[in-house]
Design a protein that fits this description.
This protein has two domains: 84 residues, DNA Polymerase III, subunit A, domain 2 (DNA Polymerase III, Chain A, domain 2), CATH 3.10.150.10; 120 residues, DNA Polymerase III, subunit A, domain 2 (DNA Polymerase III, Chain A, domain 2, Roll). Helix content is 16%, strand content 40%. The chain is built from five helices and 18 strands. The strands form four sheets. The chain has a nine-stranded antiparallel β-sheet with strand order 4-1-2-3-18-17-16-10-14. Strand 8 and strand 9 form a beta hairpin.
Length: 230
């Protein structure tokens, strides 16, 4: 993801992206002086700059309408040109409509298809996938299995017959069909999972379908697209 559009409103800074691989919505509290949109045209440069700052630095985002974005921390700043086209935002309106529909039906369906599996997981358990690229490599297929009988969501990373890493995650309040449900994701899945804040997350999925992670105490929803699903 190379760009990002943020909304500053009512003491919150929120962002939504919709890509072929995943959809993510999140927001954080912020001191808002002027409401409006903030466009980060080069997300890599912005994140690299922010990560170079001392921990817990105060950061200010300042962008007049249709003008350069300034990211400021003390006497250090980064200027980034703006853009009229934000790739990660072009499908957000459709994604938000689906998100609102799912919320209204209490997450029983997504895009008209039933989400048959449900449970709660600790997001820190998901972070165990962080080391997978260093251990077995990048861009490998990932198979996830939701097993109601064992109350386990298992992430299998790698090709069958080759080096493979498995991460088993306990599920609380587990509910689903008696047979295991599996979905196939791309090698980007670990990076998507690492966006989830610490805490309890509700997991909704189905066989050969998307997986949705909804944080129980924070405004954070991540949907990852199954490579074989709809």
């Amino acid at each position: 993801m190379g760009d990002l559009r943020l909304k500053a409103h009512q003491m919150r800074l929120s962002g939504t992206v919709a890509l072929p691989t995943h959809m993510l919505h999140t927001s954080v509290s912020a001191d808002i002086t002027d409401s409006g949109s903030i466009v980060i045209a080069d997300l890599h440069k912005a994140l690299t700059f922010i990560k170079s700052l001392p921990k817990d630095s105060m950061i200010t985002l300042w962008q007049p309408k249709d003008s350069t974005l300034r990211i400021i921390s003390g006497k250090t700043s980064l200027n980034l040109p703006t853009t009229d086209y934000v790739h990660s935002f072009k499908s957000v309106s459709k994604a938000k409509a689906l998100l609102n529909e799912a919320e209204s039906n209490h997450w029983k369906t997504w895009a008209g298809r039933a989400l048959t599996c449900y449970g709660k997981v600790n997001s820190e358990d998901l972070f165990q996938v962080k080391s997978s690229e260093k251990i077995i490599g990048k861009d490998l297929p990932i198979e996830c299995e939701f097993d109601t009988n064992s109350a386990m969501w298992t992430i299998n990373i790698g090709n069958k017959g080759g080096a493979r890493m498995s991460v088993g995650i306990d599920i609380e309040d587990c509910d689903g069909p008696p047979e295991p449900c599996t979905s196939i994701f791309g090698g980007w899945l670990p990076h998507a999972l690492l966006t989830i804040p610490s805490g309890t997350v509700e997991l909704y999925t189905a066989n050969d379908f998307v997986a949705i992670f909804r944080h129980t105490t924070k405004d954070h929803v991540l949907l990852v697209m199954d490579k074989r699903g709809d």
